[in-house]
Amino acid sequence: MEWWMTATYKSDPVVRVGSRVRVRDADGEDEFAVVAPEDLDTGACRISTVSPLGRALLGRRVGDRVLFRAPGGVMGVTIIGIT
Question: Of 52, 50, 82, nearest to 67 (Cα)?
Fold first, then answer.
């Protein structure tokens, strides 16, 4: 059997719809789920993929610094966990 047929690789998780994401900013840490727009519920810590932060997080990995435009100006968070 060839080496490429037996090797297994664990890739780093990326943020996608359904991911739980933990982020850090200047005010501390926060955790939420990234969901489809119809499942949005900020009270249940769910953000939409069409929100500025949701769009900015999609496809990113732990350790990435993400900038996004919010009503108060440009904001930034660092991804510290994805499940």
Answer: 52
